[in-house]
Specification:
Elements (H helix, E strand, L loop, with lengths): L1 E3 L5 H14 L11 H16 L1 E5 L5 E11 L12 E7 L5 E8 L8 H9 L3 H4 L1 E7 L5 H10 L2 E6 L3 E6 L6 H7 L9
Parallel strand pairs: 5-6
Antiparallel strand pairs: 1-3, 2-3, 3-4, 4-5, 6-8, 7-8
């Protein structure tokens, strides 16, 4: 079951993100208490409160991008317990949304819940317009994530030493080519 994420879910999201960062699924910096990590989690809290994530482009211009998030429980009626996973979408330029961050508690992995989580996420308003996902390479969950994304019709379109970019098969025309040829940011959080 999915429910909209809000600021009360931040401790769970922080724990899952930090755990994923320590495994290499997200930027490893997020597993620390560095100023950058603290800024990221402050910005994440703000996004959960307002629906906007603050971003800085390559020129140093600060902007607000629409963001929406969801938390996941394996069965109905578990709202009082800690969510088992989450997904956060962030606007991706003029092309809709990117599934920007997602995680599933390790206790629930390998039991079909990753597939259920992603299917439910892609059935939300933002998820139906989510064309892009980036997957960190060199971690234990990357291959499983790519398999689950393939079940949701995502195909790899670009790979760097640290990440693979996937685009959904029914994405707007030209998006895959744009990703293949565009200069990419050196930092990403998943």
């Amino acid at each position: 079951m999915l429910a909209p994420a809000h600021a009360r879910h931040l401790p769970t999201l922080r724990a899952l993100i930090r755990e994923g960062a320590s495994e290499g699924s997200f930027d490893r910096e997020l597993a620390t208490n560095s100023p950058e990590s603290q800024l990221f989690f402050t910005n994440l809290r703000q996004a959960l409160l307002t629906g906007y994530f603050i971003v800085e482009d390559a020129r140093g211009v600060i902007a607000r991008e629409p963001a929406s998030g969801y938390v996941y429980w394996p069965a109905d009626g578990n709202e009082g317990t800690r969510p088992a996973g989450f997904g956060l979408f962030k606007a991706f330029g003029l092309f809709g949304f990117e599934l920007w961050l997602t995680a599933l508690d390790p206790a629930w992995r390998g039991t079909g819940h990753g597939h259920r989580l992603l299917s439910a996420l892609f059935d939300t308003p933002a998820g139906r317009r989510a064309w892009v996902v980036r997957v960190q390479r060199g971690n234990n969950s990357g291959a499983a994530m790519e398999h689950l994304l393939a079940l949701n019709r995502f195909v790899p379109v670009r790979a760097t030493p640290s990440m693979r970019w996937l685009v959904r098969a029914d994405a707007p025309c030209g998006l895959a080519d744009t990703i293949r040829t565009a200069p990419l940011s050196q930092r990403a959080h998943h």
